[in-house]
Design a protein that fits this description.
2 domains; 15 helices; 34% helix; Rossmann fold; 7-stranded mixed sheet; globular; Beta-Lactamase
Length: 405
């Protein structure tokens, strides 16, 4: 039973709750649950409070509807937002003190037909580690990726949906370079926003209100004598073009790009009017990442996966399978999951792949060439973890289904 529930049950009436105390208890419970986000939503008959843990939303409490505006007002004050303004989106940050483990909240408020919906992203410095050896990459993939980071110039891309681990991977890459080169290397970044301050990295936050965009920042950054450039995201043709040119002119550029598949990044950039010959010359590799829920070690038991998934496996795979699934216990808040695992596929741009990009081959053919060249797909990465009982086969299929076709 969490602090929020204990507090509400100690009151003669829920309506007598002090909002500041209640919000504090909710935040403390979310931190104790190792949550990544807190959701406040006005439902038909209550204010629902949910916490995302291991990628899954879990209900924490249901509060009286009368609390809706008061909670919004309290969160706005904490995040230095305009408390009397409603009906428009607002974004802000709240830095909490030692009583909360010095966590930071990134607050997003959006108007809905049932009042303002609030999402607080939790950044806990005590649980965020950026050790490249702890990313969960297999040995061969990690070795190859480190080789790419040691290149003097070129473009390295990370791709995956929101919440797939791109930020952790990209910061881990910077930490690796810092640990190797110390202050002898000039690393600069452009981010929206800066999530983790790095003492030896020149970090520049965007300011959309003043027209300071990725493209503007990157143009200025190129005159700052950088050796390594971290670009939070490639969003538009102008930014893409500058990033590609930087990779061709003696800079190592690390960035993220949203694409449905890893080889699909080429098509995405070509659609941004980047010439194929520039992509073939500048891109060193593309890392596709996903996160899957890890089985709880305290309540995992053997189980039989869905028949349709079992039919996709070969006999040698079935022979070594140790399929496990969490049943739910107090240790995992009865979710059956405890933390998350990383799935990855690293596409290294070989000569064969460069030729295929120059010829504008379809994404499926680029995938086939990469696999023939030794790329371990997301499905294969996840399958190894499912066979070892680290996660369920269904969870892997949910995150990497396209790779099992």
């Amino acid at each position: 039973m969490g602090q929020t529930t204990n507090y509400l049950e100690s009151l003669s009436s829920p309506l007598s709750a002090e909002i500041s105390k209640l919000v504090n208890f909710i935040i403390r419970d979310a931190i104790a649950m190792k949550g990544s986000d807190i959701h406040f939503d006005g439902w038909e008959d209550s204010v629902a409070v949910r916490v995302r843990t291991s990628g899954m939303l879990t209900e924490l409490a249901h509060l009286p509807l009368e609390f809706k505006e008061r909670i919004a007002g309290r969160v706005k004050v904490m995040a230095n937002l305009v408390s009397h303004l409603s009906g428009v989106p607002q974004d802000g940050k709240a830095s909490l003190g030692p009583d909360f483990g010095n966590v930071q909240l990134r607050v997003s408020i959006m108007p809905t037909i049932r009042g303002e919906a609030i999402v607080c992203r939790i950044f806990d410095p005590n649980t965020r580690a950026f050790d490249i050896n702890s990313l969960g990459f297999d040995d061969d993939t990690l070795k190859t990726y480190i080789n790419l980071l040691n290149k003097p110039n070129g473009l390295i891309l990370l791709t995956g949906p929101t919440g797939s681990g791109k930020t952790t991977a990209i910061y881990s890459s910077l930490f690796y370079l810092i640990s190797k080169h110390g202050t002898t290397i000039n690393i600069a970044s452009v981010e929206d926003p800066v999530e983790v301050p790095l003492s030896t990295v020149r970090q520049s936050p965007l300011n959309a209100a003043n027209g300071y965009t990725y493209a503007d920042a990157l143009k200025s950054l190129m005159r700052q004598d950088p050796q390594v450039i971290m670009l939070g995201e490639i969003r538009d043709p102008e930014t893409a073009n500058i990033a590609v040119q930087a990779g061709l002119t003696g800079h190592l550029v690390i960035s993220t790009l949203h694409s449905g598949t890893t080889p699909g990044c080429f098509a995405r950039l070509i659609n941004m009017n980047i010439e194929p010959f520039l992509l073939a010359s500048s891109i060193l590799g593309i890392m596709g990442v996903r996160l899957v829920r890890k089985n709880c070690p305290h309540c995992s038991v053997p189980y039989r996966p869905e028949s349709a998934l079992l039919k996709t496996l070969l006999k040698p795979e079935l022979d070594r399978a140790n399929f496990l699934r969490g049943t739910g216990c107090a240790e995992c808040n009865h979710t059956g999951c405890s933390g998350r695992l990383s799935l990855c596929e690293l596409l290294v741009v070989s000569e064969d792949l460069r030729d295929a990009v120059l010829e504008k081959k379809p994404t499926r053919q680029l995938q086939e060439i990469a696999v023939l060249g030794g790329m371990k797909t997301l499905w294969q990465s996840g399958l190894d973890k499912a066979l070892a009982g680290e996660c369920t086969l269904e969870e892997v299929a949910r995150k990497a289904a396209a790779d099992q076709i």
